[in-house]
Design goal:
With 360 residues, the chain is an alpha+beta fold. The chain has 10 helices and 11 strands.
Length: 360
């Protein structure tokens, strides 16, 4: 093995070990473990495949050079074959770059209305529909965990669980939606505006990798304050005659999660704990990264929840991402779930940053 790719050797061994584990029927009795192993197998498989392609191309070049000493026809093949080696090496280098270990995870996504009152809540609903359509395009599933609806049918806040059916990290929900965290600004004529004037309002989006195994995050029972109350609908009217809504406060951190979507108090509590675990895990990771002052580049853009990341201009049908400089005049398509180019611009910037960091 060439010295430049010595890092592949332990990965080849791990690939064989994971493959053997996946062949064990008992592993599949634990769906969580099987999913994690399947995701790691897919991730390693890309590296192994790229390495084998590079290795074969390298051998072909050596063979062509040896035969070319006696046969000019083989000598002519050295140049094109060397190009294949260079391309395969570049691809392998790219795959060996440190990547976000959470890329393959599902996410908890929360959208909250901000400044702008009812118009902001209606915009929050537009964002939710956009993410739902994007999920449909990728064959992901979306589950509404909790929602508070405004008088005009918008969302004051809503929590979604977005899941991928695939174990391929490249299809991971976090790999795509982690760039959505921040403030989304809208410019348009509100439905409540009689003078036809353009208003600016905003909604906030929070994205957290979902905790797959509750054991990942230890939560002491005495650290939780759990309150139950009666669910309410738009305008505050009661929609439930029992105290089924649940509010969980994690006292050490002050994180509060409320759920009232389900009629069962137990179900609301379970959903609230899912969100709480995800938020606690994100907080722990951010604190750990801050301590070592070496935050992952792809995470930096999701840490500052107050960062204005994007503007949706309806009169001009324009979408603009303020981090990447991406701009297009297809807002109607974006709101229908066509987010590939927008997210792609963030992925490209992230990869460029990681390439630059690897060369430091």
């Amino acid at each position: 093995m060439a010295e430049e790719f010595a890092a592949v050797e332990p990965l080849l061994a791990e690939y064989a070990e994971v493959e053997q584990e996946l062949a064990d029927p008992q592993v599949h009795a634990d769906q969580g473990r099987a999913r994690r192993l399947g995701r790691r197998y897919a991730e390693l498989g890309r590296i192994v495949g790229a390495y084998r392609t590079w290795h074969q191309a390298t051998e072909d070049v050596h063979t062509a050079r040896e035969l070319g000493e006696d046969d000019p026809a083989f000598a002519e093949e050295v140049g094109p074959l060397q190009e294949q080696v260079d391309q395969a090496a570049a691809r392998l280098h790219e795959l060996l770059l440190p990547r976000d270990p959470d890329d393959g995870r599902d996410v908890i996504l929360q959208v909250k209305a901000g400044a702008g009152g009812e118009e902001s809540a209606l915009f929050a609903a537009d964002l939710v529909r956009m993410y739902q359509r994007f999920a449909e395009r990728r064959d992901w599933t979306v589950q509404v965990l909790d929602q508070t609806v405004s008088d005009l049918g918008g969302f004051k806040d809503i929590s979604l669980a977005v899941k991928s059916r695939s174990t391929d990290p490249d299809d991971g929900v976090w790999a795509h939606l982690k760039y959505e965290g921040g403030v989304h600004r809208v410019q348009r004529v509100p439905v409540t505006e009689s003078q036809g004037r353009i208003h600016t309002s905003a909604a906030g989006v929070l994205v957290f990798p979902e905790v797959e195994d509750p054991g990942e995050i230890e939560i002491a029972a005495n650290d939780l304050r759990i309150d139950v109350y009666r669910s309410s609908g738009p305008g505050g009217q009661s929609v439930n005659t029992t105290d089924s809504a649940v509010r969980i406060t994690h006292e050490p951190t002050g994180i509060v999660v409320s759920m009232q979507n389900e009629k069962s108090q137990l179900q609301n509590r379970e959903q609230a704990m899912r969100v709480l675990r995800a938020r606690l895990r994100a907080k722990q990771q951010e604190e750990a990264e801050a301590q070592v002052a070496e935050m992952r580049r792809s995470q930096v853009r999701t840490v500052d929840r107050s960062e204005r990341i994007r503007t949706y201009n309806f009169p001009e049908n324009r979408i603009a991402d303020h981090r990447t400089g991406y701009k297009a005049y297809n807002l109607d398509h974006v709101l229908d779930g066509d987010l590939d180019a927008l997210i792609g611009s963030a992925v490209e910037m992230d990869e460029a940053d990681r390439l630059a960091a690897s060369g430091d």
